[in-house]
Amino acid sequence: MNPLSFGCAVLVIASLWCAPLSANAAGEPDCRRLYEEIDRAIHGAGVGDAQEAKVNGYPYLRSNRFLASIVKDVDSDQRFDFFLQQLMALDQRARRLELSNLPPLALADLVRTQRQIFPSLMDINAVLGDCAHSLLAVDRVRPEAIKRNIRAPESYSVFKRLLGFYPVTAIAFSRGIRKFQREMSETFRKTLSGVVRYGDVLIYVPQTFEPIDVALILHNASDNPLRIPLPGPAELAQLFNQFAPNFAIDTRGDFDRPGAFDRSDGGRTHIDTTSAKIYTLMSHTRLKGQTLLQLNYAIWFSERPKKGKFDALGGALDGLVWRVTLALDGQPLLYDTIHPCGCYHLFFPSDKLRAKRRHPSLQEHAYVPQIAPRLDPGEHPTVWVESGTHYIVRLTKTVPEATRSAMRYELADYDQLRSLPHTDGARQSLFRPDGLIEGTARGERLFFWPMGIASAGAMRQWGHHATAFVGMRHFDDPDLIEKAFEIVP
Predict the structure, then answer these.
(1) DSSP label at residue 51
(2) Of 125, 148, 171, which one is at a domain's C-terminal end?
């Protein structure tokens, strides 16, 4: 770190020793000015975080697709206050990450501006926390105005679809999608030995865990006005361990070895394959009026190697997002998966769900290549991954003896990707302010743009995974299961 950057860092660290701002001292005009200054600094430095959507007119609130979907259920003062707490928590988490990613000089300038607004008060995050409550006290009297401005991030461009003659071009894309699904179905009908080479398969397994009462954890975690399962950190870690899958990966090169993101090589982001790490994130869905907990596991590879000069699908970075949706009884209800581009959405329902009849229109239906196997207590599903493409080619409850050698992987918070450290002490998000990952563009974007998805094939951040080229569907749509499946009587 150069001397100037070091001096800026000292200024900021020293500020954390100052007394926090009291809520009563945070006046509305000063608080709004502070938020404006912070937003200006974050935008100027290009470190905005796109995971959640800002609520227009309320800079201390952010929303996601799930929370935006339950606004209609917020029908009492108690529910509204709890709902606002969730929106405030999303913004405060995002702002902590954005501020940590500011360059030292920009952060020092912001601290000086803050001191002009709130003399002798230096901890920006503490000030923002008090300001959020002060502004909410003013805005809380107009709940309907707040509700009207809550919306989720949008991943489809209607303009691009109009420009690309979507009603016509969608016909060709629909045929291509169905062809891919037929090919995948054929792969799932083959024996595993005909798809992967057992001698090249490496098995990655989660850490050992103590059995837990999942249903009890979900019940206790839902003791809130909106009945949203919100386990605490300890309980959530237990759940992630309990339902973590095994990954059986046909490994023909380093591009098939999962790893952890690292920026120690001169600030260049790369995948360190010396230790396998899977990044976890909690989400929620709705089914029959109930909110269910979802556990997401993101595994990353250094690339999808190109098969030739004109391979439109290959490029830097690749991976899988594996998701487990838990029923209220604590059992897996559905597994589904995408690549981090939002592509290749596959569903593996339990025997408690049945796919609805295919929609007669061109819209993509929920593609189910296989029913999930029933697991015994303590068992983990094994996800089989093809070399190079990283397509999932099977889901089993056992691992053949020929591939028994296994390596442990580590679980880490997905938020780590939103603020990765440099060796010089600076930090930077893996994701751009538009939610995409720099340098991961694919050639397919040149052909798929009429479907309205920005840079189709590029890796992207949670909340921006459009999973259907024909029609509109997001990986985090809270009504996804209800639209695609019905409960088996």
Answers:
(1) S
(2) 148
